[in-house]
Design a protein that fits this description.
two-stranded antiparallel ribbon; mainly alpha; 16 helices
């Protein structure tokens, strides 16, 4: 088993990204949602559990990556049009993948056409073919001639699905906000701000957005005669989501979304905090100064977040400003420790599995969502007429037969982490790094 990590990278960032993706997969895939250890669940409303750290960690890492990937282009200051086009393209691709996961696998037609027909099989044949073509194309070197051919094949399949979808697909209740959608928006906005602003201006912009969101959520009356409030269904952000995206939110039985539009403003600041961290790490300061700066800044931000919590409670589901400051501080502490261990002292053996995860992070996350849905939607009727899902059957006959309820649920989640790590490891061994 190869245990080397490519040189010339900020390895600690790959490790941190890998830890975060592993955490995302762990908390998203329990065997049974009713038997999950409390630290692996989100806070009911106000407050912060370890699970509530995972998503802001990833957005923080997005910001750090922006700083490292765009620093040279920013220094050129001219001829940035191709860079902006690339940013827009990547933003749209990630956002599109989020919509794809929300629609997968039936694209809404199951509710309208519950009985299987030939067109259902055609849909899944086209869908599977499109996914295979995308993965194979992205695994090829950028200069490979066959990449263009595969692009044409994919576009042909997509065209056939569009024609089929005109008659079958139903997007009337498709969830538009989502995790990947928020990652896309934060990436796109932070990348543009990074190219246009210096470090001081980025800091001022971030502070301004946090104060603006605080003011909007606590001072602006909610249309309809409601006072400013932070309740799930009646706050200003929930009203805005209903006004603009009614019928396309997280759960159609609810009237709000945890990745809503207004709360994207403070989420952008989570990315800005990462971009500022990347700028700090790229300075010519000594390793000791860099680590000290990360740890001191992290400690201060955690303290400020806890103080702000008294007036504007820490809350992941509406991404409060105090939550941004608090989680960014913890992210700085994590990155500082990993940077000290991995990049400065080269203690890398323990870190290698996470670096493997981190080098195909978004691809693995998307794959985890596809597999989780397939495990749920592959189902059959039991002997008693009950509906059995593949996930439920495996969980009941495999994990519950060995472990107690809570441990079985955890073991199932850990199995997901391991299986997807094996996919990431295979890609790593083949030097395949799929860029989303």
């Amino acid at each position: 088993m190869k245990s080397s990590i490519p040189q010339g990278r900020l390895v600690s960032l790959d490790v941190f990204r890998g830890l975060t993706i592993a955490g995302m997969i762990l908390v998203n895939n329990p065997g049974n949602w009713s038997t999950v250890y409390p630290p692996l669940l989100h806070a009911d409303w106000h407050g912060c559990t370890p699970t509530d750290l995972v998503f802001p960690f990833f957005l923080f890492i997005v910001g750090v990556s922006v700083s490292f990937s765009l620093a040279k282009r920013k220094a050129q200051s001219e001829g940035l049009s191709p860079v902006y086009r690339k940013i827009l393209r990547r933003t749209l691709i990630i956002f599109g993948w989020g919509l794809f996961l929300a629609a997968f696998p039936y694209f809404g037609f199951k509710a309208r056409y519950p009985d299987w027909t030939a067109v259902h099989y055609l849909h899944f044949f086209l869908l599977g073919s499109a996914l295979l073509v995308i993965v194979y194309r992205e695994s090829l070197p950028p200069a490979a001639i066959s990449r263009k051919l595969l692009l044409y094949i994919f576009l042909s399949i997509a065209g056939a699905m569009c024609i089929l979808g005109f008659f079958l697909y139903d997007f009337s209740s498709l969830r538009i906000p989502g995790v990947l959608q928020r990652i896309a928006l934060v990436y796109g906005i932070v990348a543009v701000l990074f190219l246009r602003l210096n470090a001081q201006q980025l800091l001022i912009c971030g502070i301004g957005l946090l104060l603006l969101y605080w003011a909007l959520m606590t001072l602006v009356p909610v249309p309809g005669g409601l006072s400013p409030n932070l309740e799930a269904e009646t706050n200003l952000g929930a009203w805005l989501d209903r006004f603009l995206l009614s019928g396309h939110l997280w759960s159609q039985s609810r009237t709000w979304d945890p990745e809503g539009l207004l709360s994207t403003l403070p989420a952008v600041v989570t990315g800005i905090s990462g971009a500022l961290t990347g700028l700090w790490l790229k300075t010519s300061k000594s390793d000791f100064e860099k680590v000290s700066g990360l740890l001191v800044a992290g400690t201060l931000l955690v303290a400020v977040g806890l103080i702000w919590d008294l007036a504007f409670p820490i809350n992941k589901k509406i991404w409060t400003s105090s939550y941004v400051v608090y989680t960014s501080g913890i992210a700085l502490l994590f990155l500082g420790v990993i940077y000290w261990l991995v990049d400065i002292h080269a203690y890398r053996k323990w870190a290698w599995p996470f670096a493997v995860y981190g080098m195909n992070a978004l691809f693995v996350y998307i794959l985890s969502g596809i597999l989780a849905k397939l495990m749920y939607y592959i189902r059959w009727e039991g002997s008693g007429g009950e509906l059995i899902t593949l996930q439920g059957w495996i969980y009941e006959h495999g994990y519950l037969a060995i472990f107690s309820d809570y441990n079985a649920s955890l073991a199932y989640a850990l199995t997901n982490v391991l299986v997807l790590w094996l996919v990431a490891w295979w890609l790593y061994r083949k030097h395949i790094f799929i860029k989303v």
